[in-house]
Amino acid sequence: MLETIRVALSSLRGNLLRTVLTMLGIIIGIGAVIAIMAIGRGTTASITKEINGLGSNLLMIYPYIPYDEDNWMTMAQPKDFTLEDVKAMKKLPSVADVAPSAMSSAKVTWNRQVLNAQIEGTSGAFYRVKKQSLAYGRTFTSIEEDNRVNVAILGSDAAQTLFGQSSAKTIGETIQIKDIPFKVVGIMSPADAMRSYTNKQIYIPITTGMNMFGQMDIQEMNASAVTFDKIDQARAEIQQLLRSSHKLKPADQDDFQIMTQSEIMQMSTGVNDTMNLLLLGVAIISLIIGGVGIMNIMLVSVTERTREIGIRKAIGAQRSNILTQFLTESVFISLIGGIIGIFAGIGGAKLLEKFASMPIEFSYEPIIYSFTSSVLVGIVFGVYPALKASKLKPIDALRYE
Fold it and tell me: Is this entry keyworded Ribosomal protein (predicted)?
């Protein structure tokens, strides 16, 4: 066996460039598998952590009508929510807090600094409901909301862009939103990766926003149940309230959707798993292409070494010896490519983590799977060339020119 391995390695070294080029498909395929699985596990862990951070008693409510393929031209449009919905929801016995969300965009200035920002009209409870935190200052008061006072809370990046810093020194400064002065009363702490877009947002009382922007529809409401045990009761109360508010008949479908933290988790995990499967499919195709490349190169090698095979058989080599040698060469090409691919995949994932801020998480399973896959690819795609070599007759092989 050691002699077979020595001969196989000697043969591979003799055609080093061809051997390396043959390995490329395996390297790319295995590297992609390692990187994809590391990113997939990291993303899943990150999403799970961040969704858990939303709080187990969170309810997210959206305008929504299921798509009807047969009647899409006559489908009703989902209704946006109103301030009356928000006020009524706050009075529900199982609901602790409600934070509406209405989005617009505007030019924001301070001195000569300019920022084109997303403006979110909401209530002072938004950061509690969404489990976010204020770094400096305070939130809106109910008096400010009722009287449409021009006060603003800045995301950490928005504060950095306008003031060159995100600190307590910016509290009390006056910014201009659509050339209207707003007093800065709070700065948000940096959000987690899943909600990093909120770092660039500016929050104002929703009543102020509706007054300033004219039409500012409430596209989303976030509510928190008084306790986790009351979440199903809170959902039922909100559903009954909105169906009544939207004047829906008993046979009508809801024109809104209520999602809990666990449902958001399932949806996010499902999307992530689907993407991982698609990318894994591409990696497997690359492995198959690499395997076909190994088979073709081994067939060329059999043709080039026909006389060598004939001489070995003439001096007593058995079919099994020839079969084992060519199969060993095939496995070595695939195995070495797989090992290089494992390190390439780990390195690629690390680079993506560093330069693209992608979450990664390694485990031993993908490495074991990749190592095993390399051996299997070498065996599966090396069998045919090895059998062809082993079946050559000594007399025909010695005549070959």
Answer: no
